[in-house]
Design a protein that fits this description.
single chain, mainly alpha, globular
């Protein structure tokens, strides 16, 4: 199985705090990490732009 490659992403600390609080307050969305939330947000935005 090929190894997944990852990179770093810089976010404003205030934005990170907001996202982390969202993850804690709304576990029903299924996010466990900042990375999961960020990947989903980027995918959704890309889908809006490139698939519509």
């Amino acid at each position: 199985m090929p190894r997944k490659e990852f990179t770093w992403l810089s976010l404003n600390k205030d934005l990170m705090d907001i996202i982390e609080q969202f993850i804690k307050d709304y576990p029903e969305f299924g996010y466990r990490t900042l990375g999961q939330f960020t990947e989903d947000a980027v995918r959704r935005r890309a889908d809006e732009k490139f698939l519509n």
